[in-house]
Design brief:
Elements: H1 10-24, H2 34-54, H3 57-67, H4 81-86, H5 128-137, E1 142-144, E2 151-155, E3 162-168, E4 171-172, H6 174-190, E5 199-206, E6 208-209, H7 212-225, E7 231-238, E8 243-248, H8 256-263, E9 269-270
Parallel strand pairs: 3-5, 4-6, 5-7, 8-9
Antiparallel strand pairs: 1-2, 2-3, 7-8
Length: 271
C-alpha cells in the first residue's frame, strides 16, 4: 500500500505516507468522476489505518511477523489506475496543478504527524487467553509448531482430526483475508497425507475489523475454498468492541460442541 520495502525505517514510512496522502487528498481528485473520488477517499482511510499500525512499534512488530511467511510482492505504483487519473500525463483544461507532497497541510487529518514513538498498547483479553490451556487440559489435544501461527492444536476424531490454529494481527481487512490463504495452503500441504480430511478452525485476534461487509465476503470465500479440509471455520475476535465474527462451517468433529462453547463465551457478542 505504501510502496516501500518491508524493512523501511519509520522516517521512510512517514515520508511515503505524506506522499500518498497528497496523491489521494480530496482537493486533488475534484476533477475526477464521483466513483473515483470515492475510491480515493477509501484509499485515504486505508492509508490512515496503515499509518496507525506502522507508527506503533509493538503493532508493527506483530505485522512484520505476520508478513514473514508471505512472499514479497512487487511494488506497482506506476500501474495504479487511480494514480493515472489523479495525475494524468498532461494537465487538463482549467485543472489546478497538484501540490507537491511536502506542501500538504500538516494540520489536516489526512497528513497528521506521526510521532517517532507511541505508547505501547496491551491487547484486551480474549477467549483465546484460556482456549489453548482449556483444550490441552482435556488430554485429547496435542500442540505443534507451524511457521506463521502462534500455536496449532490437533485432536483425533472418528471423522478425521480437528485443527485449531491461532495468530494475532493488527487489523482484519479484505486484503488480509486474501493473504491468509497462504497460511491455509501451508496447513493443507502439511496434512495432505491423512486418509481422512481434517476439520479446520482458524482463530484470529485483532484490534479492529475494517470494511466488515467486504471482509465477510472474503473470509466466507476463503472458508469455501479450503476444500482440502472436511470443513473450515474462521473466528475473529475484535478486541476493542469485544465482538466475535464467525465465517464458514462449524467443524464436523466429536469435540465440536465443547470447542464452540469455549470460542463464544457469553461476555463476547457474536457479530
Amino acid at each position: 500500500m505504501l510502496d516501500i520495502p518491508r524493512d523501511a525505517s519509520l522516517q521512510q514510512i512517514k515520508a511515503a505516507y505524506r506522499r500518498l496522502a497528497a496523491r489521494y487528498h480530496p482537493d486533488h481528485v475534484l476533477h475526477l468522476p464521483p466513483e473515483e473520488q470515492a475510491e480515493a477517499a477509501a484509499r485515504m482511510v486505508e492509508l490512515n489505518e496503515a499509518m496507525d499500525l506502522l507508527g506503533d512499534a509493538q503493532r508493527k512488530a506483530r505485522y512484520d511477523y505476520d508478513l514473514s511467511f508471505i512472499p514479497p510482492r512487487k511494488m506497482r505504483t506506476s500501474g495504479d489506475r487511480l494514480w493515472a487519473s489523479v495525475h494524468p500525463p498532461q494537465a487538463r483544461h482549467n485543472e489546478q496543478p497538484a501540490r507537491p507532497a511536502d506542501a500538504v497541510n500538516p494540520e489536516s487529518p489526512e497528513a497528521k504527524a506521526v510521532p517517532d514513538t507511541e505508547p505501547v498498547r496491551q491487547p484486551a483479553a480474549t477467549p483465546v487467553s484460556s482456549l489453548r490451556a482449556s483444550l490441552l487440559a482435556g488430554g485429547q489435544w496435542t500442540q505443534s509448531a507451524l511457521h506463521g501461527w502462534e500455536w496449532v492444536l490437533e485432536a483425533p476424531g472418528r471423522n478425521g482430526s480437528l485443527l485449531v490454529t491461532y495468530r494475532h494481527v493488527g487489523l482484519v481487512s479484505p486484503i488480509g483475508a486474501r493473504n491468509l490463504s497462504v497460511a491455509v495452503q501451508a496447513l493443507a500441504k502439511r496434512h495432505k497425507s491423512l486418509l481422512r480430511k481434517p476439520s479446520l478452525v482458524l482463530v484470529l485476534g485483532c484490534e479492529r475489523v475494517t470494511e466488515p461487509g467486504k471482509s465477510a465476503r472474503e473470509f466466507e470465500a476463503l472458508a469455501r475454498a479450503a476444500t482440502s479440509f472436511r470443513s473450515a471455520m474462521i473466528v475473529v475476535y475484535e478486541e476493542r468492541s469485544r465482538r466475535a465474527f464467525r465465517w464458514g462451517r462449524p467443524p464436523d468433529h466429536d469435540g465440536a460442541a465443547a470447542l464452540m462453547r469455549l470460542l463464544f463465551p457469553p461476555a463476547w457478542s457474536e457479530a
